[in-house]
Write a structure and sequence with these properties.
84 residues; alpha+beta; two-stranded antiparallel sheet; 2 strands; 26% helix; 35% strand
């Protein structure tokens, strides 16, 4: 008897690679405040943050970073006995 090869072959389907372009960006914000303490003395507070983000989220991240920096500087000024 002759050997019979199967006509059925397995077909492997390769998934297509989909590349999604996710442009990266970063937001940098710095705030500096100089306050007089009286008697010709001053104190300066500088604080800044760089936050990485997606390009599509720049506006949202900017608002977050500005708030964080502003809150930090205000807290530091209160610690010195001065309001922001």
């Amino acid at each position: 008897m002759a050997e019979r090869k199967s006509d059925m072959t397995k077909k492997v389907i390769q998934p297509k690679k989909v590349e999604i372009e996710d442009k990266r960006a970063s937001v940098f914000y710095k705030l500096g405040v100089t306050k007089s303490l009286g008697n010709y003395e001053t104190v300066r507070i500088d604080y800044g943050i760089t936050m990485p983000c997606r390009e599509a989220d720049i506006d949202k991240v900017t608002k977050q970073v500005v708030k964080k920096v502003s809150d930090f500087v205000a807290k530091e000024l209160k610690g010195l006995g001065h309001d922001a």
